């Protein structure tokens, strides 16, 4: 076999160069990149710009859930100020709800337990039956589902404000019907993942195990995004 020193040198250079090139890609091109979660809701182009690698990119104004003033199971009045800088996982419920509500609450209880010591992640159950679900009723209900106020708040309040929050804020539906003198609700039985800017980052079917597994993963992605934004001063 004929010895070819040039070929040997080229192979050696390639072996040495590839790790360095991959390192360059990770540091300069990848740089801790991951696929960010979508931002849901209407959006519009802002008159302002930001610069990416020398190019001016128009800013985007995303849908943001407006502030509210509701009370929890301890009758404490809460607003977005109580969740400043927090990721929030929210769902709709009512204390007289059937099996779908119970399944969702069990799933929420699991998430609340997993993130019990993570101060970045908080949980909200928003009652769609504010007429019946008073703070006193919610207090007893919270004991049944182990919803600890401050970590997992069950909110109720003025029905007009709640309906506006559901329809125009969360972009969900909740319809009340009365059958035999008893209120029943048809509603979007979804978990809604919100970032610290009160933007919607995901919808997940509360009774679908595959969707709940996806939610578990995407909470972690959002936590990473929030930590990175804090590090970058955003």
Question: What features would you describe in this structure?
Answer:
It is a single chain. The chain is α+β, with helices and mostly antiparallel strands. 37% of the residues lie in helices and 27% in strands. It has helices at 5-30, 99-114, 135-145, 159-169, 209-231; strands at 43-52, 55-62, 70-71, 77-78, 87-93, 121-127, 152-155, 174-179, 182-187, 190-194, 200-205. A 5-stranded mixed sheet has the order 7-6-5-10-11. The model is unreliable at 8-32 (pLDDT under 50).
Topology diagram in text:
Elements: H1 5-30, E1 43-52, E2 55-62, E3 70-71, E4 77-78, E5 87-93, H2 99-114, E6 121-127, H3 135-145, E7 152-155, H4 159-169, E8 174-179, E9 182-187, E10 190-194, E11 200-205, H5 209-231
Parallel strand pairs: 5-6, 6-7
Antiparallel strand pairs: 1-2, 3-4, 5-10, 8-9, 10-11
Largest sheet, spatial ordering of strands: 7-6-5-10-11
* Morphology call: globular
Class from secondary-structure proportions = alpha+beta
Mean pLDDT: 87
Number of DSSP strand runs: 11
Strand content: 25-35%
Radius of gyration: 24 Å
Major sheet description:
5 strands, mixed
Please tag this protein with its features.
globular, five-stranded mixed sheet, 5 helices, two-stranded antiparallel sheet, 234 residues, alpha+beta
Quick rundown:
With 234 residues, the protein is an alpha+beta fold. 37% of the residues lie in helices and 27% in strands. It is built from five helices and eleven strands; from the N terminus they run αβββββαβαβαββββα.
